[in-house]
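quick q for whoever's on today - can somebody do inverse folding on this one?? i tried earlier but teh output was garbage lol. tokens:
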């Protein structure tokens, strides 16, 4: 990376999302039936938009950060944040540290990606009101949701300007393929979802890391 790397405020993403939600595009509501907006933000580690999407080392998971994203880095893209009930349980702690976080940071570090050049976000905004975090949701059939999320994902990519976008797992792939303006995503790498890394044999985990490393070296 060169010395002219620019930063953008994660607040720009939150402000745009709030403005879109406040348009009340779904029959006068922020989201359609079965979805809702986030009731609060995590002060510490959390995928955007529940958190600021920024890397924290193990000793600072609950700490606030400056909220500056470096453009030209790596955008790690999940499907969505999950369900409302699970999110509410994070309010007192103020951060999340699910296996997805631990495993994807290990992959990134092992691939030689600088932590300050990472941003972790989702393709689908809002929280699901029912079901479980790992339950798939056919948001593509929900009126207005694809257009809403496409508009915001386009804004994310335009703002963050990643050199590499890492799409994690089949659900995120479906969302990304349906929504994204790929010309703004830099190089795109489809990879396995890191949540289940503990179930993969060492050779499989090593292959995922090697592929991530090669993709990063290609754009660095």
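ok took a stab at it. sequence:
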């Amino acid at each position: 990376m060169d010395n002219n790397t620019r930063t953008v405020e994660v607040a720009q993403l939150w402000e745009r999302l709030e403005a879109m939600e406040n348009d009340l595009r779904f029959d006068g509501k922020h989201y359609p039936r079965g979805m809702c907006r986030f009731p609060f933000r995590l002060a510490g580690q959390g995928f955007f938009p529940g958190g600021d999407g920024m890397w924290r080392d193990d000793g600072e998971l609950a700490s606030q950060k400056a909220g500056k994203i470096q453009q030209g880095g790596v955008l790690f893209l999940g499907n969505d944040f999950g369900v409302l009930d699970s999110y509410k349980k994070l309010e007192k702690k103020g951060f999340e540290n699910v296996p997805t976080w631990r495993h994807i940071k290990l992959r990134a570090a092992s691939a030689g990606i600088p932590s300050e050049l990472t941003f972790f976000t989702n393709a689908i905004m809002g929280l699901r009101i029912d079901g479980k975090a790992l339950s798939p949701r056919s948001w593509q059939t929900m009126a207005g949701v694809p257009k809403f999320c496409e508009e915001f994902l386009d804004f994310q990519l335009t703002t963050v300007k990643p050199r590499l976008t890492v799409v994690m797992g089949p659900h995120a792939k479906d969302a990304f393929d349906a929504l994204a303006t790929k010309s703004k995503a830099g190089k795109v790498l489809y990879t396995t979802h890191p949540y289940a890394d503990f179930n993969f044999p060492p050779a499989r985990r090593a292959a995922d890391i090697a592929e991530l490393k090669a993709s990063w070296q290609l754009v660095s």
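fwiw The chain has six helices and eight strands. also The domain at 9-219 is CATH 3.40.470.10 (Uracil-DNA Glycosylase, subunit E). so keep that in mind when u check it
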